[in-house]
């Protein structure tokens, strides 16, 4: 059986809608980081501390996924985070059917690229990353980051 902790008393996991957002359905990187912080704070206690580096890793994964959805996926259509046992699961949906790709750090002329590091960061920090097609179009990316 999986143990779950949520930072709100409702049945829904914390989302960017729980904090300030620009418009309906919007979720920026800062909103995502705050949602992760709220979810983790609800399960970390003195008798069950969470590693501060793991918390930062989970916030960075949420920030990178939302940034990628905004820059490459047509915007964030859904976001939620929950803590399951000793893991944080972050899910970000967007409008694009395109799969994320890691771009080489240099272009064909050998010049360093700006950006392009978000997806490799997510894949390195998360233990389990899944990309799922959504029935209404677009995709959902879920990433599990260990808290220990």
Automatic annotation (TrEMBL):
Task: Note the Pfam families from the entry.
Answer: HATPase_c_2 (PF13581)
- Give all residue intervals belonging to the Histidine kinase/HSP90-like ATPase domain: 34-142
| Keyword Transferase in annotation | yes
A GO molecular function held by the record: protein serine/threonine kinase activity
UniProt protein name:
ATP-binding protein
Determine the domain of life of the protein's source.
Bacteria
The UniProt record lists the keyword Nucleotide-binding: yes
Region annotated Disordered sits at: 1-20
Which species does this protein come from?
A: Streptomyces mexicanus
What are the entry keywords?
Answer: ATP-binding, Kinase, Nucleotide-binding, Serine/threonine-protein kinase, Transferase
């Amino acid at each position: 059986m999986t143990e779950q902790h949520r930072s709100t008393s409702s049945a829904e996991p914390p989302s960017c809608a729980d904090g300030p957002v620009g418009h309906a359905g919007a979720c920026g990187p800062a909103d995502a980081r705050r949602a992760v912080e709220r979810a983790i704070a609800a399960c970390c206690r003195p008798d069950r501390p969470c590693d501060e580096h793991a918390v930062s890793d989970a916030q960075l994964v949420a920030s990178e996924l939302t940034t990628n959805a905004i820059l490459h996926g047509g915007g964030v259509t859904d976001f939620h985070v929950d803590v399951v046992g000793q893991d944080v699961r972050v899910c970000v949906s967007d409008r694009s059917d395109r799969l994320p790709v890691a771009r080489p750090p240099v272009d064909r002329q050998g010049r360093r690229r700006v950006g392009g590091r978000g997806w490799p960061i997510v894949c390195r920090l998360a233990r389990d990353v899944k990309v799922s097609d959504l029935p209404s179009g677009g995709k959902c990316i879920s990433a599990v980051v260990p808290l220990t």
